[in-house]
Amino acid sequence: MLGQLPDGLASPTAIVDWYLSGTTLRVRRTEAGSEVVYKLGQKVRPDEASPAVVKLTNIYLTEPEYTMLRWLPGHELRKTRWRLSPDGAATGSSANHGIVVDEFHGHLAGLVLAEIELAPEDALVALPGIAGLDVTFDDRFSGGRLAGASTAEVRDLLTLAAAAG
Known about the structure:
Helix content: 10-25%
Shape: globular
CATH class: Mainly Beta
Number of strands: 7
Strand order of the largest sheet: 4-3-2-1-5-6-7
Number of domains: 1
Oligomer: single chain
CATH architecture: Beta Barrel
């Protein structure tokens, strides 16, 4: 968790997630430039006790399919995803352990999370050149939990975010 957006970010993508209540499913709309993509995703942990490894499955949707699924009960999460390479040079790709930085909006405005994408065989590493609070093993910062967080929970998370800056 970061106190603010770091320098050197590029390639913003607007993301609207709809976490379906009582499931491991999420409906996602992404917009980068003029490209809009719709997906149905499922995140499952091989080890329920550890958020370090997550298996993600995506199914691409049409806009009408996305719209239909948005009618199901759930919670919305809005964010802008930025890209940053490990050496601090902005990049449009997350390959080779790229770093993504999520800037949250709406009820989570002020929250900034950074994540490094690793292969399953890679060891966990600190985010190079970025200071902040490591929340890897804190489930309160998972997308589904953030989307459904109460006002009091959000206030507590934003207090932690302010302390990280």
